[in-house]
Specification:
With 214 residues, the chain is of the alpha/beta class. It has two domains: 14-64, Urease, subunit C, domain 1; 67-213, Metal-dependent hydrolases (TIM Barrel), CATH 3.20.20.140. It has helices at residues 87-97, 113-124, 149-155, 168-177, 197-213, and strands at residues 14-18, 21-25, 28-31, 34-38, 41-46, 54-57, 62-64, 67-72, 103-108, 132-135. Strands 5-4-1-6 form a four-stranded mixed beta sheet, with no helix packed on it. The longest helix has 17 residues, at 197-213.
């Protein structure tokens, strides 16, 4: 990412992290670049530091771009009724699970989609701070492959019924129409069930078709 020079309004409350090694991405190293922050938002990476900025010396330190976590689940009971969880409580849960570790983008690979979408909507609206969320929603399982209530309770997971691959096409269409970002197909151990290759192919083909038409 190239360094940027910008003109800054003197009324803006800018914090400047200066003197550190900045990894804007895995292949881009910027020595002694200033990272400028307005409130909670990084607004620039470059050399110019506004005269009024609050300076934090990062000499000898490393500053990285946000991390991705591509395997998370929002299916624990603490996430249930996400639309009505108090904002401060929801923000704290997101911080404890993700943002305090530097995760700014996550991929949820199995949860109740309507509930997870409520979390994403509240983040994207600015109501609560949190990472960018992508999700598969409910994963497709083998016929009869839904985990029992005993297993869900043992795992501390919300009670849910997952779509089965008996009608993989309709299940995939419904999820994609609902706005998920991917399709997950899995066999829940240890029931020993299998998923026919034809069902897998149907789901994959439909996901690719929908991606090409969006």
């Amino acid at each position: 990412m190239p360094q940027k020079r910008q003109h800054f309004d003197g009324d803006r409350n800018v914090t400047a992290l200066v003197g550190g090694m900045v990894y804007a991405d895995p292949d881009t190293q910027l020595r002694d670049a200033a990272v400028l922050i307005d409130g909670d938002t990084i607004i620039a990476v470059g050399e110019e530091v506004p005269a009024h900025a609050n300076i934090i010396d990062c000499s000898g330190l490393t500053i990285t771009a946000g991390f991705w976590n591509s395997h998370v689940h929002f299916f624990e009971r603490k996430w249930s009724s996400a639309a009505s969880i108090p904002a401060a409580e929801l923000a704290n849960q997101l911080e404890q699970m993700l943002t305090r570790y530097g995760f700014t983008s996550v991929f949820d690979i199995g949860s109740m989609w309507e509930n997870t979408r409520a979390i994403r909507d509240r983040i994207e609206s600015g109501e609560v701070p949190g990472p960018r969320i992508r999700s598969t929603g409910e994963g497709l399982v083998s016929i009869g492959g839904n985990p029992s209530d005993v297993v869900l309770n043992m795992m501390g997971v919300m009670k849910m019924t997952l779509p089965e691959v008996g009608d993989a096409l309709q299940a995939t269409k419904k999820l994609l129409a609902g706005g998920v970002d991917g399709i997950k197909i899995f066999v829940s151990a240890p029931n020993g069930a299998t998923i026919p290759e034809a069902a897998i192919r149907t789901a994959v083909d439909e996901a690719h078709r929908m991606n090409n038409t969006r």
